[in-house]
Amino acid sequence: MTDPHDLVEKVVTELPAWLPAQRWFGGKDRPVTSVRPLRTTVLRGEEPLLVHLVVEVEQPDRREPYQLLVTDQVENYDATHDAELNGLLLDLIAGNREVDGLRFAHEPGVEVQTGLRGRAISAEQSNTSLVFGSQYILKLFRKLTQGENPDLVLQRALHEVGCEHIAQPLGSITGELDGETTTVGMLQQFLPDAVDGWAMATTSVRDLMAEGDLHADEVGGDFAGEAHRLGQAVATVHADLERALGSQRADANDIERSVQAMITRLDEVAERVPDLQPYVPALREAFEQARNTPGAIAIQHIHGDLHLGQVLRTVHGWLLIDFEGEPGAPIAQRTALRSPLRDVAGMLRSFDYAAHQLLVGRPEDHQLAVRALEWARRNRAAFTEGYAEAASEAVGDPRKRGYLLRAFELDKAVYEVAYEHANRPEWLTVPLSSITRITGEGAVQS
Ligand SMILES: Nc1ncnc2c1ncn2[C@@H]1O[C@H](COP(=O)(O)OP(=O)(O)O)[C@@H](O)[C@H]1O
Ligand SMILES: O=P(O)(O)O[C@H]1O[C@H](CO)[C@@H](O[C@H]2O[C@H](CO)[C@@H](O)[C@H](O)[C@H]2O)[C@H](O)[C@H]1O
Questions:
Q1: N or C terminus: fewer CB in 10 A for the chain?
Q2: Domain presence at residue 322
Q3: CA-closest residue to ligand 2 atom 23
Q4: What residues have CB less than 8 Å from 125, skipping those under 6 apart?
Q5: Ligand 1 centroid vs 143 CA: distance in angstroms?
Q6: Residue ranges of the Maltokinase N-terminal cap domain (predicted)?
Q7: Separation CA 411–CA 419 (nearest Å)
């Protein structure tokens, strides 16, 4: 029988080669120089073994903690592929159990069913999610950030004020990282009938492309009604977050910090991705123009990485998921109070993505390019209109904040350039062509 500590020793020596092949690994564009175990918790000491492992992954410019579940039973040791062993995690949450400092807990008043198998969903994601029956989804955060994860903190706060646009948080797993209590997992209600916004939007784009001579409002799969409802849902979540956790008026220092952060990110990404360099002057100018936004700007807790893949359409309406913020951004930035227009900008970027991803790798086709642009414009307008209808007084109509919205959209596109460079280089043209378009459109009103 394998000793759990021998297993860990063996796994750790193999991780430098294994990690870069994992979709959720955030440092795929740099070599892994070493991996060392930080904390080992044996969750099941007899065969099949189940060991919770936190390792520190060293790369030339960073050291980051990652969470793993390992077993002696499956290929590559990744226990999240074993549905039976995953069931143990749910049982521990149901029983409010603590194992060697790793705390499994259900939310107060929630009863969690035991004895279910948990299958890992094979999505292109930054974390690993396990689905139990048709009731529960358990997200295991892969890259760990010290402290409570904003995903859990914000969704708990939203649930407390009765927000209708989230899945109910049902439990959590917390451990310790550098002496601080840290969220490593989050259990939520699973919506088995849900379809994500990206799947719906790209189906609509495909419909339009198949009918080359029709306009976006003439084809069966028009998405504008959904985009409008989605805008209302996002504005409602922002209003609920404001109700739950408050908001502030940004002062000149907050705005200056935000402009500087956009410029710093631009410089960092342009150094890493040479394709971005020709756009730097126009981008810098757009970021500086954000200072000219008139009137008071409300700042509050926001989603932070909102896109069509983070919204689910159920029979009851739109839900927002994954309030973790941009997985690549520092935690201080992810938890800071920010303008809700950042989420609006994220979603506007996503309409652009949905419209243009079908053109990636195809020979140039003027007709399709015109249709793509038309689809994006129609749905961006419908989303913004819906948002403006339901926005709180403090946030107001995004269309009246042209400079700011444009700067946030471009900042998001810069983030996407870095993201695509590291994860899907063939998609780099999507954010780059948007940058060309937006900066080419020149000045905006207000
Ligand atoms: N409550 C839920 N009900 C149904 N499906 C969900 C739910 N939460 C997440 N999903 C599915 O799981 C995927 C991954 O969830 P997400 O929170 O975005 O993880 P990640 O942080 O890894 O991006 C989503 O794209 C969605 O398809
Ligand atoms: O969902 P995650 O939290 O893992 O977000 C990361 O991955 C996203 C891709 O899966 C990435 O989103 C970009 O591509 C999407 C289409 O695949 C598109 O809808 C988004 O608008 C675009 O930003 C996201 O940026 C990244 O943080």
A1: N
A2: no
A3: 416
A4: 23, 24
A5: 16
A6: 18-75
A7: 12
Tell me how far the alpha carbon of residue 307 lies from the centroid of ligand 2, in angstroms: 7
Residue 359 and residue 224 share a domain? yes
Query: Domain for residue 240, yes or no?
Result: yes
Per-residue pLDDT reduced to its tens digit, 235-273: 999 999 999 999 999 988 888 999 999 999 999 999 999
User: ipTM score of the complex?
Assistant: 0.96
Alpha carbon of 191 to ligand 1 centroid (Å): 10
pLDDT given for residue 340 in this prediction: 97
* DSSP-derived pairing of the beta strands 247-249 and 34-44: unpaired
- The β-bridge relationship of strands 311-314 and 195-196 is antiparallel
Regarding whether 174 and 73 lie in a shared domain, the answer is yes
One domain for residues 125 and 204? no
Atom in ligand 2 nearest the alpha carbon of residue 326:
27
313 occurs within a structural domain:
no
Q: In this predicted model, what pLDDT tens digit does every residue of 58-71 receive, in sequence order?
A: 999 899 999 999 99
Considering the domain boundaries, does residue 327 fall inside one?
A: no
| Tokens 């193999």 found at | 14
How much is the pLDDT for 441? 67
Nearest to 51 by CA among 12, 24, 21: 12
- What is the pLDDT at residue 207? 87
Whether the bond into 48 is cis, omega within 30 of 0: yes
**pLDDT value for 446:** 38
Q: Is the CB of 121 under 6 A from ligand 1?
A: yes
Name the domain count of the chain: 2
Whether residue 355 is found in the same domain as residue 437: yes
| Domain span at 342 | 195-301+337-441
The H-assigned helical ranges of 19-122 are: 83-94
Bridge partners, residue 35, by sequence = 57
Residue 123 CB less than 6 A away from ligand 1:
yes
Whether residue 29 has its Cβ less than 6 Å from ligand 2: no
Confidence at residue 292, expressed as pLDDT on a 0 to 100 scale: 84
Average pLDDT taken over every residue of the chain:
93
Residues of the chain with pLDDT under 70: 1, 74, 123-124, 212, 216, 441-446
- Please indicate, yes or no, whether residues 415 and 351 belong to a single structural domain of this protein: yes
Ligand 1 pocket, 335 CB below 6 A?
A: no
Co-location of 143 and 178 in the same domain? yes
Tallying the residues shown for the chain, one arrives at: 446
Among 157, 189, 221, the domain-final residue is: 189
